[in-house]
Amino acid sequence: MAEIATAASESAEEAPVRELCVNGACLKADEFEAKLDEGKIEEAEASLREALSLSSEDARYLLGKLEYQRSNIESALCVLEGMDIQAAIQKLLPPPDEKTPPRKGRSHPGSMQGVAQQPAGPVLEALYLKAKCLQKLGRATEAADECKTVLDSIEKIFPQGIPEVISDNKMQENLNQAAELLPELWKQADNYDEVIAAYRRALLSQWNLDNDRCARIQKRFAMFLLYSGLDVGPPCLAAQIEGSYTPRNNLEEAILLLMLLIRKYLIGKTKWDQSVMDHLGFALSLCSQTSVLAQKFEEVMPGVFPRDDRWKALALCYNGAGENGVSLNLLRKTLHKDENPNDLVTLLLAAKICSKDSLLAAEGAEYAQRAISNANGADEHLKGVGLRLLGLCLGKQARVAPSDFERSHLLSEALKSLDWAIALEQNNPELIFELAVQYAEHRNLSAALHYAKQFTDATGGSMVKGWRLLAMILSAQNRYPEAEMVIDAALDETAKWEQGPLFRLKAQLKISQSLPMDAIEIYRYLLALVQAQKNSFGSTSQGEDDRINEFEIWIGLTNLYSSLSHWKDAEICLGKAMELKDYSVESLHQKGLINEGCGNIDEAMTNYTDAVVLDREYVPTLVLLSSLMARTNSEMLPVARSCLSDALKVQPTNSMAWYFLGVVHKRDGRIADAIDCFQAASILEESNPIEHFGSLL
Questions:
Q1: What pLDDT score does 543 carry?
Q2: Residue 638 confidence (pLDDT) above 60
Q3: At 293, is the secondary structure helix, strand, or coil?
Q4: Whole-structure pTM over 0.85, yes or no?
Q5: What angle, rounded to 10 degrees, do the helices at 619-632 and 601-614 form?
Q6: Secondary element (H or E) of residue 141
Q7: Other CB atoms closer than 10 Å to residue 504's CB: what's the count?
Q8: What is the CA radius of gyration of the chain?
Q9: Where does residue 258 rank: exposed (0-12), middle (13-18), buried (19+ CB within 10 A)?
Q10: How confident is the model at residue 30 (pLDDT cuts 50, 70, 90)?
Q11: Is 118's pLDDT higher than 80?
Q12: What is the pLDDT of residue 94?
């Protein structure tokens, strides 16, 4: 049967006139529209059947479509409901006595010869049209059922699979439309299990969907998985190739869909869609796999992204993956004078990366100052961010300052920048926290306590680092009972797996109050929590993200037993720590401490030296190495003085470093310098926290 369609003719003076066209014969629709307006559906059907020699189903379909185009939705639905669609579909099915061979991939065009004699397009389009009418009337569940019937019918018509080429193009169009519409209808019906089933069916069935439509379905499914908030189970694949990948959860399935979409874009099957990269970036950042996103950006052909935008996106990806060196090099290229030297976001990101490294801090301060200068107009709200990063960079730069005067000047400027930033961003919790730490490091404990309380209030006590800072400031004021009360309050507000840092701090408090046995009991409890953590989550490596870090617990116990001169116990604990990390600056430091306590001076010197080579900014080792050199060999006094100077660059308020520097000056005959150092050590010792404030940043 030829195509059934509606057409419209119009002239310059007359209003548009609808026509009904079948097999080249056309009739004006006025007569049929009038009968439909009067509710005479059967009479209109009979007239149309007689005029165009149509079957009852075709006539009903044509009248329903006419009413739908006239926006008479209820009337269109009434016309279509009069069709015996199931009987019409039954006529299209293969004979029941025909043996159906097993389905193997796609069928060939020859397999649809029986169906070609009975065009299925009008019948299926009537079903699809009925679904659209029900959708517009707000009857989403019924609409979805009708739409599902379209897909079920096509699968019954082609039991061997949809041919690659269908002579009835109208049927393929109906299939495409129904496959795309069905998930949206189930969403409107709030039936999310059916939404998932409809999406997976559309993507896994061999329906010859066109590339653009398939890409739209993939993208919508990925967005649904990412943002719906539902816990979707993995797909159940009846026939799965051995060794093929099956996603285990929403996130993995969404990432798989988006990566397949990008592959289609790369080989030219569909048009480029920037939002797909945005969704993939969100998904990969959730699982800390931004390095994979970087690979995708690198695969995109030149010209899709502006060059500086690509560099900036890659820099963000590598920064998220912890490869700050690669990220900074890309940002430097972006900020070249011939590219985009004043891009505000790029300047801020470069300054943030540089603020993590003392050797890059001067460069970061320059980027931050340029960002502050360019934060005008619509971007003026970012000036506070620039001032904050400037303060952090100046604070880091002070660590490598060549003189005490310059160090003092840089620290003062850092504090000023943070003060200006807080004036612009008074409700920024992270800025409040950093300002509190800076004041604490300057031993302005009253101001530090004020901002620490403000941070805890701003975050509702949900951040462990806020409680830790409060306890450390109180310990620096020698208010140990209050510090312990703060930690106990924090433990009540904190989940079990996040309590590790708080318990370690509580152990340090017990040690400061000369209660070593209480500290040992706390460490034992922490080890029990570690075992419970392993039982709950399996044996995991002790990475930076571990809430209860077993390595740090054993190192803390080693240090405690060493302070009590229980060398055997200390060695046992150190052995446990080294089973987790066989070569680290902390374990080398503790090994040197044990050897020094046991009188093995040469071995201790070797351990301390190895630790300094591993990390030149690890202050405890620099201090102990210097003290050992000063005691054992007067010729090593210049080296000891240099090591202590390096330690004070990193931690200017370290009382032990000032004390041993005084010892070195005294042995070297510089009595006046020694007195100054001893005096500084005495003053700082009165406000020593139980843990260095800089460890919080």
A1: 42
A2: yes
A3: helix
A4: no
A5: 140
A6: helix 140-157
A7: 23
A8: 37
A9: buried
A10: low
A11: no
A12: 65
